Amino acid sequence: MEMLTLKQFQYFIKIVEEGSFTAASEKLFIAQSALSRQIKLLEEEIDFQLFDRTDKKVKLTAAGEVFYKKIKDNMHYLNEIIGVSKNIAEGKNRQIKIAHSSSIVMDDKKVQILKEISLTQEINFEINTLSSEHQVLALLNGEIDIGLIRPPVRHTLDDVNVIKLYEEPLMVAVHIDHTKFANKEKVEVKDLKDEYFVSTPHSKRGGLSYLVSNLCLAAGFTSQKAPIQSRKTSQLQLVAANLGVSIVPKEFQQILPAQVKLLPLTDQLSLSEVVLVYRKDHDEIIQHCAEHIHQIFQS
């Protein structure tokens, strides 16, 4: 016995709507004999007659009336399901989860890049904030699709693809009335030896914290903790409250409170890069999206 097909349902609905097999066959561009054969197969499969064939005109049986109403109602939802599923198969309306560390500002440039990709590729994005360390784990666990991190990280990157997006200098965030730095246009890391850090770097964390920790150690000291601390962008508010200083990337210039200024670091190693990471066992949509982000950044 042949299986029911979507075409058979569509043929049946067309016959009822057109009022005859002849008119339906013309609209469907198939022979009337082939159309009649498909309806006969449909009736055999469902084990009851749809049409009363004692009259020359198309007339539904009582069972056929109910079948038509139910099939007609459900075809709308079925077509919608097929459409949604097809879009997913083609990568359309796919939701891609992106994470970025708190030291990477989701500024207008990044938002516009994602907006462009979303509009041209019919892809949706969900953005969250995770530390660079947690992003690697989240990628490997399938919790996110793409990460934006600041190396180095303590986890191995052997299982992920790494694409460098950009590099920027690190700077010192200080209160505008800080007497020690009032007339300085640039700073060395060693100048911060006696300062309180509102974001204490330590070597057990990757990302910016690890980088800053090494800068301080290279300058011969371990940073002192301020009485209130934060490793998020709220550390700038602590600097604004004159609780201490912080080493941050240049892009924090875009979110500076009025009471805070940034001073360049002159140390040779005071650079930080931002890289895009995604799993090596990715699908084509993720790879295409990652390459597109990289391409726009480079242009």
UniProtKB/TrEMBL annotation:
This is LysR family transcriptional regulator. Keywords: DNA-binding, Transcription, Transcription regulation. Coiled coil: none annotated. Gene3D superfamilies: Periplasmic binding protein-like II, Winged helix-like DNA-binding domain superfamily/Winged helix DNA-binding domain. It comes from Acinetobacter lactucae. SUPFAM superfamilies: Periplasmic binding protein-like II, Winged helix' DNA-binding domain. Belongs to the LysR transcriptional regulatory family. The keyword Iron does not apply. InterPro entries: LysR_HTH_N (IPR000847), LysR_subst-bd (IPR005119), WH-like_DNA-bd_sf (IPR036388), WH_DNA-bd_sf (IPR036390). Pfam families: HTH_1, LysR_substrate. Residues 4-61 form the HTH lysR-type domain.
